[in-house]
């Protein structure tokens, strides 16, 4: 055992040695081809002693390299008034000979500092083939100097020419007379410029200089056959300096690749008003020539036509004529500092690239880059990067290398990773084995051990089972062997039990979990939906609260993305694979997600934040409890990346007086903050909470480091009541008026709940725990309250193509100002841009209101999206008073008239945006009520800023769920998806329906296929809200006889219905479809059994064959239709009779077929859509003319568009009808749950901002030349 452990340690050491930046003692460092002239200075004031110190430094540096004709070659040039070539690259081709040559150099040419002459000589001579230069070798020049050059302008000029030749230049300044500006001009970029105070300190930068000179291609990038196109923003918003920084960043990234016709090829496309093909993939076939070409690119100017650049790349860049290779991976890296001129086209062109199989990386620089657009451009969110400015680009180099080169950038980081694998019956042995292979492949990319990554594995089916714990196998060989031996144990899909096992056992210290700062990651793989979805949601939430990061992987078509999103920590941790064989295709994405999980959160929610803690340090606490507060704060801080681009912290305490322990400007890294927290002392005294709040106010002053355009959060912890409640209330108001989100935490039984509410921003930001030990339990809730922005729900597929008339009423009063008014217009454009615009789809109108109402855009004025968006951009700002009532009257009397484009069959929606209270409150309320009384009218109100009246917003809106508030105009975009969803709610959310399923359980089905019918019904029920005021369900089964499983009014909640569905009887026998329809007519649709007169009623028949008595079936279906019942017919398999399906259904649009029972789930959305459409339509009157039939079999799937000609307005739901609740998942999709008895009283406010993503910098260089001065 001791020998095994010793060998493992040796292997770890060998791996660490391989990864050191070129520093190896046994002639294996930098053993790729490179040429490095060293240029040293011999000016008069330097003296022979200092010159010798330069030479000693050069000798030490060169000893780190493998020297040879096929490895690294060195040359040396000295300079003063003149330059002198000491030796060329090919003169000394071994390490010993090189040292011999360096020892021969003497200090013999003192004089002035003609740096430019030395640079020119090196450029024109040093790399010639006759002097040892090799076309495929990296070229690096290292310049050492102790003063400013005699001719700075010529020096800069020669340095630029050297850069443009593709040569990497490192500049070393020695002493106080050098100028940093000149060093930076000589060097390739600032990361390649070094300074030391005197010659004795040269050796202190030896490792840094070697790293800079010796960054070789990453192993996975090195020989990878990749065609890479950089799309570079060259618009007018980017300065020349920023553009140069952008180019330097691209060159650093290029150095990670070996460039040749059989390895990586590079192209650059720049864009502004036009697109510029700087050079194509086949133009340059060496790295040096590519780097030189990038250095020669000139900046352009103009607007940001990102869409045109992406279009050019899709149409041209990867063609064979431009050098594209069909067998190479295709990669596009887009850099931009702002939103594109045409976001819709940009997203469309990016989607083209995605569909072509091109991997797209999007990098946003500065606050002008829009995260939503970057997400649309990139292949996925893992390939989106953002930085605060061009000078910060190198901070994302490591993550970008991982994304572009498919490498595991965190393989040696500590982490506890547990795999939870679905072992249910739907998998089968072969598929389960493919899961295990996937786990093996993934695990093999990490270093395994107690000081690296630990891996555990559990499975779940009917019950869960842990196969090995985190601490079971501390070496990779044994771990991989054990993974392959995990047995397959089929059963049901109790995902919740698997999650519970992971939470309760897998991540415990007893089983190897290390806790503390070691990340805990659970990776769940499943091929289906959980047997108990509510329990799964509950257990997933429990894992999230415990700080365990959860990645969810769905395999195949049987999974439900909404459930995956609930299981996962967030949308970036959800993955899907088309089948088990496709698991390999997501290995790299999973590695990226896991690596991101090994780091603290960068932002608070979705943007940077300034967070101050205000801690009670009074005598009632005691020292022990005060330190529990400090531990709570430390654990909170550990969740974030602390620096100027992300989250910053401050700390204040209070007792008899308040004191700021440190400000945002004091510490800029996590460890320093943690150290300061640990040093904070307990004070003791009275409870002057107001003094603590005053310190928080000071904290948010700019001179203490508070930043503009970031979230501001104060978290107040106290165990008692303040000495002066009135002063505390006043200070809390003052703090909140600064735009600070305030969270109050009461500890113990002596706190005042009223005071906590007065301190906090709202009741949702008030928390209580019984004692100080319980603080840990609310850490997740506090973090969510401080930073959590619930993801906006996504739009149902049917929304956006249905007939809807939307009128925006925009406040154009004097309180807005033109700038803020334009932000309203941007919101409208983004909202409208989601829809298909036209007379058969969505129409949008716009009116503005101030002292008067202006009819800016009529509903029928524009019939295509682009024309509409252009017109919205041209709407004029008026100024004046806020006559909201006139705008509401206009909407009621004019906006929806046929002459304005109003359509009788369309859903009518009014969206009111305002930043203040109306001029006449009473008249506004009256007009709002009249507007809402219109049939089919829905009104949404949006309040912007602190001057709005929540009472008035509620009075304007249809109900509380249609009221929204944001902190300012910049935050409007946050509401886009939420309001879109509210605008497009379908019957499943707001109307009533009685739905009866008639399920074929004849002998031809068999128990397995019958079960698949039940699963179909279960999923259908799960999608819709259940209750006496929403949707009711009933199920009848039929075979040789008819069995009522349950009536419409038998169950008023979803869980009992789902249980009853799964308990349905499989009868067997003949196919008595007619008897089933007769039974439904005489029993299930009776009022006594739950049928409602004000509800739309449906019968959905599922069958796999022809009925035993076709005449009876037709007769009974006709009778149901005559009663106004909508019938749908679903035929399964090849044994169905298409004529009979048409006979049963209300019309051909309500006929659906699938090739087999497995395909049932694929038509669920189509069936639901037909049912939802039916809620708003009147059934066609019975006719003596038979519905047309055909002798041609129906296609296997039918998705015929729903009719729109027989629609009539559905009566508005009574105001007392409870609305169903929706739970947004991390993916933004919606789980619909049963209707609540109460509604929230106020929506949350949101703020807008941008995301900055940074990471530790890396330095990359390939070839070196040294100039010593």
TrEMBL record:
One of its GO terms (cellular component) is collagen trimer. InterPro entries: ECM_Assembly_Org (IPR050525), VWF_A (IPR002035), vWFA_dom_sf (IPR036465). It comes from the Eukaryota. CDD domains: vWA_collagen, vWFA_subfamily_ECM. Keywords: Cell adhesion, Collagen, Extracellular matrix, Glycoprotein, Repeat, Secreted, Signal. Pfam families: VWA. Residues 40-209, 227-400, 416-590, 610-782, 805-979, 994-1167 form the VWFA domain. Residues 1177-1210 have a biased composition (Low complexity). Residues 1176-1224 are annotated as: Disordered. One of its GO terms (biological process) is cell adhesion. It is found in: Secreted, Extracellular space, Extracellular matrix. This is VWFA domain-containing protein. It comes from Pinctada imbricata (Atlantic pearl-oyster). The lineage of its organism: Eukaryota, Metazoa, Spiralia, Lophotrochozoa, Mollusca.
